[in-house]
Write a structure and sequence with these properties.
Blueprint: H1 13-24, H2 26-29, H3 32-74, H4 78-123, H5 128-176, H6 178-181, H7 187-259, H8 272-312, H9 317-415, H10 421-473
Helix pairs in contact: 3-4, 3-5, 3-7, 4-5, 5-7, 7-8, 8-9
Keywords: Cell projection, Coiled coil
Subcellular location: Cell projection, Cilium
GO cellular component, one term: axoneme
Length: about 475
């Protein structure tokens, strides 16, 4: 179900006050910019109080100087002329002091405008490092300007005290010498001047007393507000730290689970970039929702302020209808803006619901994939065991093969021509040829033996035949 944008305000009054304070002081509790603006706002309050008090004292001094001029213009004594001279000098000094005070007020206004520029520049989409350096530089410049202004204010206050002491001495001397210097026709004027001087001294004492009371109230209120601000800051820092820690844990859990997820279609690991993109879009939507909620709260506070302003004024009957119509138009415009914001927040909530559904669906798929993954892990363990046993048997077979190879090479070396058929055939042919040649050699030897026997026989027959021939010849 969609929540209305007024739910966080219509709840607990403590939460309402906390949200109101946090929205009013959001420039004081977010970062160093807000602390810097808090310091400037406190210093500006002090400056404004002191400036207003100083202006009041200057106006009183001017009035007293005007009255003093009236009284001194009627006296012709040398002392009266000297007092007029001193008063003129004091007037010139007071005018200079006024100019300095105007410069202080202008600088304070410039600091206000400068603070607005700082807010605009710090809210822009620049890089964090350049923002920090520019912010630190501007902060240092403003601190230097503030120190200069405080020093000038201190000098102006000292000068004002000196002028007031001069005036009090002058009035005291005037009251002491009034009976001797003033003439009979100026008795009424001198008495009125004395009464004015007494009134000024009493007014000065009363103003100092009120100033001390105001300062005391201011410092008490400042301490109380500082304590509240520090407590709110601590609370916000603690809540922000808890929120960031929870968010980081959630993102880490999502990324961890996503890194182990396997697609049911492809059977591959799902890329983590998908989950990172989902987390980035989720963070952007959360940031947009927070911005819209703050804008909605700001508009609601604006509407409440406008209502309170209109209630504070007691409008006349003639202008009541016109103001009511104008307020009606403004209320309508604000309602339209609120409706637009509500539509945008509704769209964002629908998108968030869709993303949550996607995340739940993906978590369910992830759980189912984890069960399948555990089964596959078991199968993988069995296969790895088989693979290891096969590797061991393969190593043993390789060792046997190497041993057989070594034996084979050794047997080849010892067996000679065993296994070489062509060479064996050639060797057999050569053996057969040798045998044939041996047989031929034996046959030839037999023939030679027979021939030798024949030759011997013939040699034995030769002498007998020679004897026969010789006998025959004889």
């Amino acid at each position: 179900m969609e929540e209305s944008p007024r739910d966080p305000i219509e709840g607990d009054p403590d939460n309402k006050n906390f949200i109101q304070k946090s929205t009013e002081n959001k420039s004081e509790t977010v970062d160093a910019k807000d602390n810097f603006q808090l310091i400037l706002s406190n210093d500006e309050i002090v400056l404004n109080v002191k400036i207003s008090q100083h202006k009041n004292t200057i106006l009183e001094d001017r009035e007293s100087l005007k009255e003093d001029e009236k009284t001194t213009s009627n006296t012709a004594s040398a002392e009266g002329l000297n007092v007029a001279q001193a008063v003129n000098d004091d007037k010139s000094k007071i005018l200079k002091d006024n100019e300095e005070q105007e410069e202080i007020s202008e600088k304070s206004e410039s600091t206000d405008s400068f603070n607005e520029k700082i807010d605009q520049s710090l809210n822009s989409s620049e890089s964090v490092s350049t923002n920090d350096t520019v912010r630190e530089r501007r902060r240092q410049d403003l601190i230097n300007q503030q120190n200069e202004l405080l020093e000038r204010q201190r000098k102006a206050a000292q000068f004002n005290i000196q002028l007031q002491t001069i005036l009090s001495n002058h009035f005291r001397r005037k009251r002491a010498d009034a009976g001797e210097i003033a003439h009979s026709h100026l008795d009424n004027m001198t008495s009125s001047a004395l009464s004015i001087g007494i009134d000024h001294a009493a007014e000065y004492a009363r103003q100092l007393k009120t100033l001390s009371q105001v300062r005391k109230q201011y410092f008490e209120q400042k301490e109380r507000l500082d304590a509240e601000i520090s407590s709110i800051k601590n609370l916000t820092e603690r809540k922000v730290a808890e929120a960031t820690e929870a968010h980081d844990e959630l993102t880490d859990f999502i990324l961890k689970q996503g890194s182990q997820a396997i697609s049911s279609k492809t059977g591959r690991v799902v890329p983590v970039d998908i989950y990172k993109d989902l987390i980035d879009s989720w963070q952007k939507k959360n940031a947009a929702i927070t911005v819209e909620r703050l804008e909605n709260i700001r508009l609601q506070h604006q509407v409440e302020k406008i209502k309170n302003v209109f209630k504070a004024y007691d409008l006349s009957e003639s202008l009541h209808l016109i103001d009511f119509e104008q307020m009606k138009i403004e209320n309508q415009t604000y309602n339209e803006k609120i409706e637009e914001r509500n539509e945008e927040t509704g769209k964002l909530k629908r998108k968030i619901n869709n993303t949550v559904q996607i995340l739940t669906h993906s978590s369910e798929k992830l759980s189912s994939c984890e069960t399948g993954f555990s089964q596959l892990k078991k199968q993988l363990g069995e296969l790895t065991d088989k693979l290891n046993s096969g590797r061991d048997s393969l190593a043993k077979l390789k060792q046997k093969r190497d041993a057989l190879r070594a034996n084979y090479t050794a047997m080849q070396k010892t067996c000679g021509l065993l296994g070489q058929t062509e060479m064996l055939r050639g060797f057999e042919e050569s053996v057969d040829n040798v045998k044939a040649k041996k047989q031929e050699l034996l046959n030839i030897k037999e023939q030679t033996r027979e021939l030798r026997e024949k030759a011997k026989h013939y040699e034995q027959q030769v002498p007998s035949m020679k004897g026969q021939k010789m006998f025959i010849s004889n």
